[in-house]
Structure to design on (432 residues):
């Protein structure tokens, strides 16, 4: 339903009836609290579509959206939770349907009640026609935030056609100390492929800022990534290719990415992740885990995140020998890996005192697997020993092996172990 105005609506027009049509022209309307503008109607009496126009309608965005647009939105969808402000002047015309639109949006702002979307200082001008005419449009904003991630100013020039729009030229947004570059951005608002699509890349985005905003385990460094064509349709986000990122000297590829209910209350992400050539020294430096040198490969299959928290996955990570890269680990990292595997660290006063005398230890193989289901993590390693699983296979003297025996652990407890390891002891500074 629509909300009635608090004061009378004033409308005047000139009415004319002929043998061919009913006609209203030179009409004007003043709607209290909303705005004012002109209109015209032409209704053939011998059949034919009703032709209508709304001319130079100057209205406030807040009541327009709250009282006229939001009631038409699907409950629970993004549009149902938005608030808008600003001023818009527009003209529309139709004959049985919408045929043409011209708009001038000034000093507008849009935000969602769940804080997933916020845009301020929005200005846009343009025109659209159903008849095949192509026109230009502009879109500007001063600042924005998506999932609480702040984004800098936007200046985009668009080409509008009957089916949608696309970029006239690429543009770049600043974010988290880096940039998001849009090579392509397009929209379709008709047919089975309606929605938005984009492709581009990330450059130098701060992981410290990102992990703090997303409330993930904190670590430092920057990330750059290539973004294939992302598509947004009917509330879901998906990609037609692999998202590839350069992280810690290696490559992370995300395949089969799909997010259901992207702007909803409980978004569900699914995908598969491949990791190759990641250097362990910068990785463990960033997480303050203790010094480990080597190269890591791995995968995360059947990943499912509900509201951005892990629900299920099958993960396996292991080191691979690379010429010229030493495979070494510090005493602090040995302690942390032991605790992560369910142990209490290296036991025994004399054993601990002896091992502390060595700066690093050589190893032959390092790795760990985690299978998460229903809040329980099932752990594995690079091999088995008796009833346990080998996390670290030492090499040389003194040789240090790490074997875990508690294969099943509560997921929150495993996260707590990881947090403890990341905040434990100082780093051992040594080169690779």
């Amino acid at each position: 339903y629509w909300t009635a105005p608090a004061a009378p609506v004033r409308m005047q027009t000139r009415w004319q009836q002929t043998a061919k049509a009913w006609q209203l022209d030179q009409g004007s309307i003043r709607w209290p609290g909303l705005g004012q503008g002109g209109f015209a109607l032409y209704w053939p009496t011998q059949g034919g579509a009703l032709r209508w126009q709304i001319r130079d309608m100057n209205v406030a965005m807040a009541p327009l959206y709250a009282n006229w647009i939001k009631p038409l939105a699907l409950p629970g969808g993004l549009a149902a939770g938005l608030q808008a402000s600003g001023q818009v002047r527009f003209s529309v015309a139709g004959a049985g349907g919408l045929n043409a639109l011209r708009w001038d949006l000034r000093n507008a702002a849009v935000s969602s009640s769940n804080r997933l979307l916020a845009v301020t200082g929005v200005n846009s001008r343009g025109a659209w026609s159903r008849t095949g005419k192509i026109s230009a449009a502009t879109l500007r904003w001063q600042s924005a935030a998506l999932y609480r991630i702040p984004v800098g100013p936007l200046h985009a020039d668009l080409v509008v056609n009957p089916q949608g729009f696309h970029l006239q030229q690429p543009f770049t947004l600043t974010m988290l100390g880096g940039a998001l570059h849009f090579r392509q951005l397009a929209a379709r608002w008709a047919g089975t492929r309606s929605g938005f699509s984009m492709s581009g890349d990330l450059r130098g985005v701060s992981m410290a800022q990102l992990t703090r905003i997303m409330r993930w385990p904190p670590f430092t460094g920057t990330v750059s990534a290539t973004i294939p064509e992302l598509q947004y349709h009917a509330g879901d986000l998906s990609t037609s290719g692999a998202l590839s990122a350069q992280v810690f000297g290696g490559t992370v590829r995300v395949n089969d990415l799909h997010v259901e209910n992207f702007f909803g209350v409980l978004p569900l992400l699914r995908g598969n992740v491949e990791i190759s050539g990641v250097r362990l020294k910068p990785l463990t430096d960033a997480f303050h885990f203790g010094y480990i040198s080597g190269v890591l490969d791995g995968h995360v299959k059947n990943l499912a995140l509900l509201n951005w928290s892990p629900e299920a996955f099958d993960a396996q990570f292991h080191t691979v020998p690379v010429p010229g890269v030493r495979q070494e680990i510090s005493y602090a990292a040995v302690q942390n890996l032991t605790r992560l595997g369910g142990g209490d660290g290296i036991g025994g006063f004399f054993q601990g005192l002896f091992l502390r005398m060595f700066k690093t230890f050589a190893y032959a193989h390092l790795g760990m697997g985690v299978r998460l289901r229903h809040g329980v993590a099932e752990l594995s390693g690079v091999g088995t020993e008796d009833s346990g699983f080998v996390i670290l296979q030492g090499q040389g003297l003194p040789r240090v092996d790490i074997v875990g025996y508690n294969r099943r652990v509560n997921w929150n407890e495993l996260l707590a172990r990881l947090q403890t390891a990341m905040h434990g002891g100082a780093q051992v500074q040594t080169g690779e």
Observations:
- The longest helix spans residues 411-422.
- DSSP finds six helices and 30 strands in the chain.
- Helices lie at 61-69, 207-214, 280-287, 331-340, 349-356, 411-422.
